[in-house]
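Technical note accompanying the year-one report. For the benefit of new consortium partners, we illustrate the data format agreed upon in the data management plan: each record pairs a sequence with a structure-token string. No post-processing was applied to the example shown here.
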Amino acid sequence: MRNPKKSDAAANAKRRSSGSAPVDSEASTDGGYNAGMAVFSYIIGGIIVWSLIGWGLDYLWGTRWIVLAGALLGAAGGFYISHMHGLTSSRTKADGRHAPSAPSQDGEDNAK
């Protein structure tokens, strides 16, 4: 008799594969490169957007320092968003996947 769980997993892996080589579903869904690019995009995007806002305010108010404050605010905001999305954590579980960044369910602090 056929094992339905095994055949479903094989069918899902076959659908995800774009080439002729088999794809490991665990490795392809969570890549360090993708997380790094997301962090980079958040930080650079924040710098660009908030620098432009600061430049506009500098132009309106006749100052020269708000663009720098906007760039720093954008970098900090981009890093904060990356951290909140769990992209900046390097902790891993024993099986190689990322450890959860939420508090433990039992209410105890496991920090060392």
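Partners are asked to follow this layout when depositing records. The mean pLDDT is 75.
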